[in-house]
């Protein structure tokens, strides 16, 4: 939990630093922090030393993901950027899955210290690879024909002014609301309450619960690229996609929580599939920053948006824990009411998406003359065209 709090708390400072020094510098420094954190964890023999190591890991993690996201708009065309963002998240999940088995084997076979030392040197290798191969943007030719790397843009404004300017744009708030609403339930389930809910709230065996969590991870990997393609093809319908993701995530919760007893296994499997959609769905929020913010403030905007889901997850984790405490511990009825605490959080997020979307569309109309019709109107018109047999 400490590592998560550090990760979320550093998103905005990291975004500001990315805008100032470029993503490559922060990627290298973040990988170095990961190396130091894992190295320190290998030799930690007390709670304070373990806390310091976790702080380093949280800081490094915060820098790496944000830096990779920032490089995508510089290297890929706009219609491919959403897909590359999804593939970045997918590769991160694949890395977690791939590292879990060998790391668990190393931990069991060789012990704590050798396992974490090995992990630390993987991070060190990542830092060296970033030094050698990563650039902020592609090489460009100067007037003389020579190649150079374009330096990151920087407007020189004070930090507080940059953050205020980023927050003042409704697209940042729409991205944050999207990230908050689509991903909070997914994060809450994956990071804290998923396994206890499955084993106690749904009375699954350990192997059954593990199988459900595996289904959860696989679904996220499959859905991500599809959402990336749709986001790139339909940029004016991103908020509709986000609302659809929230509906897909919350409707199974409503059905299961309405049952007077444990749900059948097939319904739990559907819940796993639907919750997992929220992870890839949260990347839609980053795309609002990419298309509306100037490049020299894109890192800060991404950092602000990325705090949304983690803030929502921390809020949901806390609310669920409070309800469980009120019931005196784990039970079917306790989890039934505790998990229902997610519903008002989702409703709050949906209202925020709707409000900020209206602001973004009004600004788009005023500044660029682009008017985005409601999706219902578009569907109704296309239906009438199809019904009347017109091309």
From TrEMBL:
Molecular-function GO terms, alphabetical: transmembrane transporter activity
This protein's UniProt keywords: Cell membrane, Membrane, Transmembrane, Transmembrane helix, Transport
Residue ranges of the TM segments: 25-44, 50-69, 114-134, 180-198, 210-230, 242-259, 265-286, 298-323, 335-353
Protein's name in the database: Putative major facilitator superfamily transporter
A GO CC annotation given for this chain: plasma membrane
Record carries keyword Transmembrane helix: yes
SUPFAM superfamilies referenced in this protein's UniProt entry, alphabetically: MFS general substrate transporter (SSF103473)
UniProt main location, coarse: membrane
Localization in the cell: Cell membrane
Species this chain originates from: Kineosphaera limosa NBRC 100340
Domain Major facilitator superfamily (MFS) profile: 1-357
Pfam families assigned to the protein according to its UniProt record, in alphabetical order: MFS_1
Membrane-topology annotation of the record: Multi-pass membrane protein
